[in-house]
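Hello, quick one for you while I still have it in my head. No rush at all, and the record is pasted right below.
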Amino acid sequence: MAGRFLLDTHLVVDIATRSGFETIPVRVRRILEDPDAELLLSVASEAEVAIQSRIGKLQLTRSEFATVCASASILSYPLRRHHADRLFDLPMHHSDPFDRLIISTALADDLPVISRDKQFRKYKDLRVIWQ
């Protein structure tokens, strides 16, 4: 299933802190294991992990996070002005600012998002992959 996919933060955290791929649906595992799939992680997700680690909500060091991303060939995806601009029109289905940035990025760049978050499905035109 080649293509470009924006990953929700929880996916990288799940891989890093749980039993790896075992808790992830088969469809998602196939995408993650596909060498032709481009796996992207928003800089917003990187900031979220850093903040949650710093305040003690997440036990994941900078080097562990970097190792998980490198071993899974997950690329950092930059935030751009048009991603932030898309936030002006985004409905308030979700209050988490990091998730809102992920959603606006996916919509602005027409990227499917891999996420288990059911709130994501409320956004018109957002392609969400999980089950």
The chain is about 45% helix and 15% strand. The beta strands are 3-7, 37-42, 74-77, 113-114, 128-129. The chain has a mean pLDDT of 93. The chain has one domain: 3-129.
